[in-house]
TrEMBL record:
<keyword id="KW-1003">Cell membrane</keyword>
<keyword id="KW-1133">Transmembrane helix</keyword>
<keyword id="KW-0472">Membrane</keyword>
<dbReference type="InterPro" id="IPR050366">
    <property type="entry name" value="BP-dependent_transpt_permease"/>
</dbReference>
<feature type="transmembrane region" description="Helical">
    <location>
        <begin position="110"/>
        <end position="140"/>
    </location>
</feature>
<feature type="transmembrane region" description="Helical">
    <location>
        <begin position="152"/>
        <end position="171"/>
    </location>
</feature>
<comment type="similarity">
    <text>Belongs to the binding-protein-dependent transport system permease family.</text>
</comment>
<dbReference type="InterPro" id="IPR000515">
    <property type="entry name" value="MetI-like"/>
</dbReference>
<feature type="transmembrane region" description="Helical">
    <location>
        <begin position="238"/>
        <end position="260"/>
    </location>
</feature>
<protein>
    <submittedName>
        <fullName>Peptide/nickel transport system permease protein</fullName>
    </submittedName>
</protein>
<keyword id="KW-0813">Transport</keyword>
<feature type="transmembrane region" description="Helical">
    <location>
        <begin position="281"/>
        <end position="307"/>
    </location>
</feature>
<feature type="transmembrane region" description="Helical">
    <location>
        <begin position="38"/>
        <end position="60"/>
    </location>
</feature>
<dbReference type="InterPro" id="IPR035906">
    <property type="entry name" value="MetI-like_sf"/>
</dbReference>
<dbReference type="Pfam" id="PF12911">
    <property type="entry name" value="OppC_N"/>
</dbReference>
<dbReference type="Pfam" id="PF00528">
    <property type="entry name" value="BPD_transp_1"/>
</dbReference>
<dbReference type="GO" id="GO:0055085">
    <property type="term" value="P:transmembrane transport"/>
</dbReference>
């Protein structure tokens, strides 16, 4: 048999991927994305922030988390374009001699990491409880929803402060910077699970009465398989919207906790910690220490919120 008669396995392997890409480009969501220039700009800015956070060790002129690279002689240097600016400190330095741009890049990594892990934790907890409450109903549903109702009476930041305070009271000064990061993730995760649970519960209560669920039950599939394999995929639209918006809320919550002194320490600052540090020197004339981290945080939150608003409209046929 000649080589020409053999099937092209490479081409066959690329065909499904090419088909998926073609369907994605022809979808209503991508069409809606291309029509909104504001959304495209927001997506570009968000991707830029993620790229800067990932490439921080390659871009930053110093590691602001390494005390050996900091010199107090370089403290409170003004931005480079001012009369008192010095190279290579483009955005100036803070009171510890940290390059502000480097601190923003590394702080951005902390803020995004805490936000993403917090959203994953809250989403996993809320989706699981929402599936259980909606599918089984009865006393389980009533218990989960009453807990959710009680938590909704408290602001998310108050729940986060409560969790943070309980953990600190249990472990005290034994918490290092990485442990503090885990505490923030736990506090944020326990603060935002209710939205996922209530949304998933409502969707599951609609989906479980449909024929495909009855058919899955008739062939003997266990409840966890039905919930995860058949019901959950039909609730992913609202979950994606909530996750996108909650990412911005999680970053804001982490920044608020750090600004209040209940978040990341000064040795491993996030954007919120940098703002708290700079706020102490604002009226002394060193405005750049607080201004640039604040601008970076505001632009990041705005771009993520714009993406969340677009995704909500794109996934809701009634709003098209």
């Amino acid at each position: 048999m000649s080589d020409a008669a053999l099937p092209d396995k490479t081409a066959a392997g690329h065909a499904p991927a090419a088909g998926l890409i073609r369907r994605a480009l022809d979808s209503d969501i991508f069409y809606s994305f291309r029509r909104s220039r504001l959304t495209m700009v927001a997506a570009l800015i968000t991707l830029l922030f993620f790229a800067l956070a990932i490439a921080a060790p390659l871009i930053a002129v110093q590691n602001p988390f390494d005390p050996s690279e900091l010199q107090l002689m370089n403290s409170r240097i003004a931005p480079l374009w001012t009369a008192d600016g010095q190279s290579p400190f483009l955005l100036g330095t803070d009171e510890q001699g940290r390059d502000v741009l480097s601190a923003i890049l590394y702080g951005l990594r902390i803020s995004l990491l805490v936000g993403i892990l917090g959203v994953i934790l809250s989403g996993a907890l809320g989706i699981a409880l929402g599936l259980i409450a909606g599918y089984f109903g009865g006393a389980i549903d009533a218990l989960i929803m009453r807990i959710a109702d009680v938590q909704l009476t408290f602001p998310a930041i108050l729940i986060a402060l409560l969790v943070n305070g309980i953990v600190k009271s249990l472990f005290g000064n034994r918490l290092d910077a990485m442990s503090m990061l885990g505490v923030l993730v736990l506090a944020i995760g326990l603060s935002f699970w209710v939205q996922y649970a209530r949304t998933v519960r409502g969707s599951v209560m609609v989906e479980k009465n449909k024929d495909y669920v009855a058919a899955a039950q008739l062939i003997g599939l266990p409840a966890p398989v039905i919930m995860l394999r058949h019901v959950l995929p039909n609730t992913m639209g609202p979950i994606l919207v909530i996750a996108t918006i909650n990412l911005a809320l999680a970053i804001i919550t982490e920044a608020t906790l750090s600004f209040l002194g209940a978040g990341m320490p000064e040795t491993m600052p996030s954007l919120g910690t940098l703002i708290r540090i700079g706020n102490n020197y604002l009226f002394a004339g060193e405005w750049w220490i607080v201004a640039f981290p604040g601008i970076a945080l505001a632009v990041l939150i705005l771009s993520i919120n714009l993406l969340g608003d677009w995704l909500r409209d794109a996934l809701n046929p009634k709003l098209r």
